[in-house]
Amino acid sequence: MIHIEDADTPRLSRRALITGAAASLAVAGCTNTERRLLPAEPAGPVLSPKDPYYLSMYGPMPEEKFPVPAVNLRRVDPIYYRQVVDYATSERPGTLVVDTPNRFLYLVQENGKALRYGVGIGRAGFSWGGRARIAYKRAWPRWTPPADMIQRQPELEKYRNGMEPGLQNPLGARALYIFQGGKDTIYRVHGTLEEWTIGKAVSSGCVRLLNQDVIDLASRVPNNSPIVVIQGGAA
Fold first, then answer.
1. CB-CB neighbours of 157 under 10 Å
2. CATH fit for domain 52-230, picks 2.60.120.10, 3.40.50.12780, 2.40.440.10, 2.30.130.10
3. In sequence order, what are the beta bridge partners of 106?
4. Closest CA to 103 of 2, 208, 213
5. Is 206 known to be catalytic?
6. pLDDT of 150-167, one tens digit each?
7. Other C-beta atoms within 10 Å of 103: how many?
8. Is residue 30 annotated as part of the catalytic site, yes or no?
9. With pLDDT > 90 as the criterion, what percentage of the chain qualifies?
């Protein structure tokens, strides 16, 4: 959705576990994309924007329909770099869990592990939470603002019938569409070029990831995967 800058939210524990039900936000991603080979994952706990592993992970993606530039990792808190973490949960592997208070999205894996991504979340008053599913994914999707958003922001009228895909499109490189009870929630998990927004509450309801991360996530998540969005008091 349209990105509106908001006050930075406090940074919380990188190991915070999420428990509860109800949440704020939405979708990412599309067609399966072959994941690129990366250097061996660093063994130590120190994350650095100079580490070759992360420079490769967040490097340019010229093979995309709209070539994706490298992320300026100095503008992203290293806690939000993509990484495998210990994760205790009763959710089955393959489930997406959005931890709204701590600004993380977890893809649950086997053996008490999860692949964790940093996210930006919806601003207070534009939040959604609960259990749903990823009905489908799109690569380089069109973006159509909801009617109530156009009413609040008349300058979006020109996009009533949709905005063409591209780097400046608010949905970024991939969008995952969240449905609940057979109905579109209007919330998405999607990509962004605005790396400084990761870890903050800045968007009108949706969950945003770095384009490199949402491309990776979309390649791992099949249609109809379950998603749980956990909403907390820190917004």
1. 10
2. 2.40.440.10
3. 97, 116
4. 208
5. yes
6. 888 888 888 888 889 999
7. 25
8. no
9. 60
Cα 191 to the center of its chain, rounded Å: 6
Confidence at 124, pLDDT banded by 50, 70, 90: low
pLDDT value of residue 26: 34
Domains of the chain: which residue ranges?
52-230
Q: How far apart are CA 78 and CA 97, in angstroms?
A: 20
Q: Which of 206, 217, 218, 230 is catalytic?
A: 206
- How far apart CA 211 and CA 193 sit, in angstroms, is 6
Q: How far is CA 227 from the centre of its chain?
A: 12
| Residue 126: per-residue pLDDT | 59
Take residue 25 and report the two structure tokens written for it: 């936000």
**Which candidate, 28, 2, 35, places its Cα nearest to that of 141?**
28
Helices (H), the chain: 52-57, 147-152, 211-220
Q: Which of 28, 14, 46 is nearest to 210 (CA)?
A: 28
Of the listed 82, 137, 188, 190, which one is catalytic? 190
Q: Which residues contact 103 (CB under 8 A, 6 or more apart)?
A: 9, 12, 80, 118, 119, 120, 121, 198, 199, 200
User: 9 or 83: whose pLDDT is higher?
Assistant: 83
Q: Are the beta carbons of 198 and 5 closer than 8 angstroms? A: no
Least confident of 44-53, 133-142, 204-213: 44-53
Q: Strand pairing of 104-108 and 174-180?
A: unpaired
Overall average pLDDT of the 15-21 stretch: 35
Residue 71: DSSP 8-state: P
